[in-house]
């Protein structure tokens, strides 16, 4: 079979239930175009999930023909569409001298096949028989009728991040025990809501951490073996961000030293309060002060 040129993108079926389906068709067309235009790997200063464009280019790409007449959406319509995608946390846009830099948010999450349920359950065979759409619709309908908890199949960012962390960990530790993903998602949600972390940046930090899997120094330290839960990720997030920004070649710095010190403290057996008091009572008394010798306390 001949290969299809140009590559591909992934789109979640849950998009059928998103607010985008209630918006004008221009919004969906622009969203699909942005997904297709986004770089799938780093290209100079443009990273994965980004691309440069302009309002005029978007107008041209969103044009259509009525007979021999070419129609274009107005500047106002284009602005309203991409501002709507921005407010929906689907893209972010920065304007500069070289035009507009568009970033598709959570690109790594949605373009990773392993993040989708049932990605290896024979969809190709079902699609060739024309049953795939009916199969999915039946599943969703049955779940709604039974009022089942759809938390594990919803398009929630916190849960996607939890799954992404688990998938990255299992690249290094294939036998890693299945965690409670809802508990993991709660920690991710705290990072998103309370700590105000950017989900796309969180994804980059997770990737960097799990790629740092080569033991270093006498202690054999590496971040991949130390960040094995969202709680630990949240605790060390600022330190990990600094280390990631420092880039390769600066791995034996203060961050690793601090982490090693914490490991040593956690490894040391903690003494109970009774043991601390007993140790204090056995310690030799300090030398009497000069004032206490000159002015002894009167007897009671």
What does this entry look like structurally?
Among the domains are: 13-105, Orthogonal Bundle (Arc Repressor Mutant, subunit A); 157-267, no CATH class. It is built from 14 helices and 5 strands. The protein has helices at residues 25-37, 55-61, 75-87, 107-110, 123-128, 132-145, 157-172, 181-193, 199-211, 230-235, 237-246, 254-267, 273-282, 290-294; strands at 50-53, 64-66, 69-71, 91-96, 99-104. The strands form 2 sheets. It has a 3-stranded antiparallel beta sheet with strand order 1-5-4. Strands 2-3 form a two-stranded antiparallel sheet. Strand 4 (91-96) and strand 5 (99-104) form a beta hairpin. It is elongated and about 70 Å long. The termini are far apart. 18% of the residues are buried.
How are the SSEs ordered, and which strands pair?
Elements: H1 25-37, E1 50-53, H2 55-61, E2 64-66, E3 69-71, H3 75-87, E4 91-96, E5 99-104, H4 107-110, H5 123-128, H6 132-145, H7 157-172, H8 181-193, H9 199-211, H10 230-235, H11 237-246, H12 254-267, H13 273-282, H14 290-294
Antiparallel strand pairs: 1-5, 2-3, 4-5
Helix pairs in contact: 1-3, 7-8, 7-9
Descriptive tags:
two-stranded antiparallel sheet, 300 residues, elongated, mainly alpha, 7% strand, Arc Repressor Mutant, subunit A
What's the shape?
Answer: elongated
From the alpha carbons, calculate the radius of gyration and give it in angstroms: 28 Å
Alpha carbon gap, first and last residue: 104 Å
Let me know the number of strands.
5
């Amino acid at each position: 079979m001949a290969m299809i040129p140009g590559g591909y993108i992934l789109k979640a079926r849950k998009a059928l239930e998103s607010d985008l389906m209630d918006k004008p068709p221009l919004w969906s067309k622009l969203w699909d175009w942005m997904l297709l235009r986004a770089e799938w790997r780093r290209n100079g200063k443009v990273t994965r999930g980004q691309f440069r464009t302009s309002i005029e280019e978007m107008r041209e790409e969103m044009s259509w023909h009525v007979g021999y007449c070419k129609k274009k959406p107005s500047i106002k319509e284009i602005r309203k569409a991409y501002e709507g995608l921005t407010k929906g946390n689907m893209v972010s846009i920065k304007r500069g001298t070289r035009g507009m830099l568009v970033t598709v948010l959570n690109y790594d999450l949605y373009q990773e096949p392993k993040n989708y349920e049932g990605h290896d359950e024979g969809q190709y065979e079902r699609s060739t028989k024309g049953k795939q759409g009916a199969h999915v619709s039946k599943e969703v309908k049955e779940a709604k009728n039974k009022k089942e908890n759809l938390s594990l199949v919803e398009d929630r960012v916190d849960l996607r991040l939890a799954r992404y962390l688990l998938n990255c960990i299992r690249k290094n530790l294939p036998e890693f025990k299945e965690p409670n993903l809802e508990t993991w998602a709660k920690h991710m949600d705290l990072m998103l809501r309370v700590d105000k972390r950017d989900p796309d940046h969180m994804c980059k930090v997770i990737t960097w951490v799990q790629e740092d899997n080569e033991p270093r120094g006498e202690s054999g330290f590496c971040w991949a073996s130390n960040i094995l839960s969202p709680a630990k990720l949240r605790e060390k997030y600022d330190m990990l961000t600094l280390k990631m920004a420092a880039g390769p070649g600066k791995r034996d710095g203060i961050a690793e030293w601090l982490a090693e010190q914490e490991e040593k403290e956690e490894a040391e057996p903690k003494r109970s309060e009774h043991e601390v008091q007993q140790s204090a009572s056995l310690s030799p008394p300090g030398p009497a002060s000069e004032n206490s010798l000159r002015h002894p306390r009167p007897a009671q």
